[in-house]
Amino acid sequence: MQQILQMLETRDSVQVTELAETFSVSEVTVRSDLTELARQGLVARVRGGVRPLQRGQSELGFDFRLGLEVGRKRAVAQEAAKLIGDGEAIALDASTTAYYLALELRSKRELIVVTNGILIAASLADAPGINVLVTGGMLRLSAMSLVGDLGADLLKNTRINKGFLGARGLSVDRGLMDLNPDEVRIKNDMANACERVIAIVDGSKWHRSALLTFVPADSVNAIVTDESAPADKVRAWRDRGVDVVIAKEDDGGGATVRPIDLRRDPPENGGNGS
Predict the structure, then answer these.
(1) Is the pLDDT of residue 267 over 70?
(2) Relative to the CA of 41, which of 49, 64, 116, 181 has its CA 20 to 30 Å away?
(3) Is 78 found in the same domain as 49?
(4) Which residue range(s) make up the domain with 10?
């Protein structure tokens, strides 16, 4: 299944017949694997095969995900912000939930934020009480994140009080999971630099899985989630000694926050825009 996902990194689709021949297995086996990948939300089924979920339009990446489960993400962010004190050093990954958390931190004082998220860094750039340290590395446009060796080298020499990390899925057996290998590596490096690892995941992530683990279950110190998280899975994490904080969604809702669009051309008149 991992090789199928790697094939889809550079192709519009793959067919059942081709996969059966490539891996020397029956078409029944291939269809079963494709069904599982689709169930995990990793691919989209098409006639005779599968295609990637995102089709080259990178603007659909971070911006699109920012508009999903907005109320739940805001609730998680507000509750997670309560765990952060003035004067601490924290890490935020490039997840959309971390972006909402960053917006909750603007009133903090003497806070150091380490992040690989370009838009997260931009959202805190003018916050008077916050110093932002960007990890550096290669830009992944779809996630507006920085990945690679530069970020890893910086994190190896950094000690951070708390890391707040989003995930594509989580389980008591496999821990925190994601799909992209570059994102998984930087998340793992970030977690290793933190004294405490706190997962920030809305209720939809409890039903998902992914191929790669970036933090094993026994290295997760706490989880902040919302009321839609399944009670039996919450109980399983608590039985392992993990503090699970349940955030209550604000009925008032609110419009989706749109991040600064760093991908647009700057104003020709040299002004600061709006």
Answers:
(1) no
(2) 116
(3) no
(4) 2-53
